[in-house]
Batch of 2 targets.
Target 1
Amino acid sequence: MTKSRNKDQQGTDDQYGGFHAGFAVLAGRPNAGKSTLTNALVGQKVAITSAKPQTTRHTIRGIVHRENFQLILVDTPGLHRPRTLLGQRLNDLVAATLSEVDAIGFCLPANEKIGPGDRFIAKQLANVGNKPIVALVTKTDLVDRQALTEQLLAVAQLGREVLGAQGWADIVPVSAADGFQVETVSTVLAGFMPPSPPLYPDGELTDEPVAVMVAELVREAALEGVRDELPHSLAVVVEEIIPREGRAEDNQFLDVRVNLYVERPSQKAIIIGRAGSRLQEVGSAARKGIEALLGTRIYLDLHVKVAKDWQRDPKQLVKLGF
Ligand SMILES: Nc1nc2c(ncn2[C@@H]2O[C@H](COP(=O)(O)OP(=O)(O)OP(=O)(O)O)[C@@H](O)[C@H]2O)c(=O)[nH]1
């Protein structure tokens, strides 16, 4: 975490006029709805969402601004049993993130039975020790009242199993899709934030570097429709974002140069498509998102490269920013 609370900034309620601010993490297994909930809480799209697990590689923060609190959300990559070196790094990242937050929101989908994966994560979270863990039962729009009640009981039981008699700090059912209880989630989590002045300027939604957000937009566009073929094999690196020089009419444009790394030539062919047709579509979809993000027009230059087996190669992982 790049920004943390300065010790001098911690104080009493009176000192900051009742204002509270701090960090919370949304944990949970892949596909549990963490990114979607982050976006719903922040009110703007900041984290990539996808039907495929583990699309969130970077720890993207969204900032929830309210009159009397500021909640800085960390959207973790799916916490899971490591399978590749990349998986191991993701888990290290998650562990480091968890030790620095003021509260944990543990996402459990309402429409799926609690499984070994959830139990594994619950135990990991409990091991962090001394952090309030709020169970968030997500996607409630997908189940009826009866099924939701049963899931809430099962979640409460899991809390007693891993945390002892006191169980979870709270349990909140929520649907990011229809907005049900989204505001409750933010106030419950904010209840665990210490008295503090605002940690970020009003209106700032994320402190993620622009390059990372640009890379996420390209990655999302490149995976559209081909997630089954290469869900985890794509890394996106922004090489440069610079003002376009030359003719006067070009001054309002930025040049954005981006490399897309895949593991095999066959995957490169999928991204590029017949005679480059698919890459063009990726480019125009990503360009729209990036222009909206940057508030200016851009020339987007995409290059697809093969970095053989990058997920298992420590040198490549460093080069690609993991
Ligand atoms: N119906 C419904 N679908 C949801 C809701 N929240 C998330 N989803 C869907 O569930 C899938 C996974 O959501 P994500 O937010 O990407 O899940 P995640 O936990 O961030 O996943 P990873 O990045 O893989 O860890 C996507 O297809 C979402 O559209 C919800 O409240 N209701």
Note: The chain has a mean pLDDT of 80.
Target 2
Amino acid sequence: MGDRKFFIGGNWKMNGNKKAIDDIIAFLNEGAAVDHTEVVVAPPAVYLDYVRSRLNAKIGVSAQNCYKVASGAFTGDISPAMIKDNNCSWVILGHSERRHVFGECDKLIGEKCAFALQEGLKIIPCIGEKLEEREAGKTNEVLFRQMKAIADNVKDWSSVVLAYEPVWAIGTNKTASPEQAQEVHTDLRKWLAQNVNAEVAKNLRILYGGSVNAGNCKELAKKPDIDGFLVGGASLKKDFITIVNARQ
Ligand SMILES: O=C(CO)COP(=O)(O)O
């Protein structure tokens, strides 16, 4: 807890159209432009400008992904400079769906982190174990491997918010219990203390993601090492405002 400002990210994934987004913007502008919590939403790339130009300036806007170079023959991708050109300052990197649907590896995600930071974006790198890895007792081994690939590419940790999203909890209605999430977050801070430094271990915000909703957010938010959430499905609904207010 301490000085780490609570942070709520809304990852819209590949959802929405202008009409649906208008409704989301209306409830965000009314209820999410708060001082007690940092709020950032991540629309699909084609809507970054649409959302940024309509949303209250207190609410941040993030891309869901970007590539590791400035420009060129990379059909279908976007660069950090393009995100900034749309007045957005955040990017999610290494989301579980990028890793497991699109086959992104630790090395690529690390390179993306380095380049996005170099270009002046703030990043939300994501890590998480699969169910079979947890059941095989490999949770920390997997998470620490993913963490190292990210940490080796970060110089300025003040531009980083880490998201722990167990793959088995994403879009499944199976949330990690507050105790399970707290345990992982504590282990991640220990890893950061040993492999980066004590300052980063203390100050880095670590979000939990995976089936967070209006009903379970308050219990999760009570845990001292959970500094907020990365919310998928529930970020498209008015319930998101309850999540924004999970810890005041
Ligand atoms: O992947 C997530 C956020 O990035 C979590 O998604 P859900 O909240 O839909 O489980």
Note: The chain has a mean pLDDT of 97.
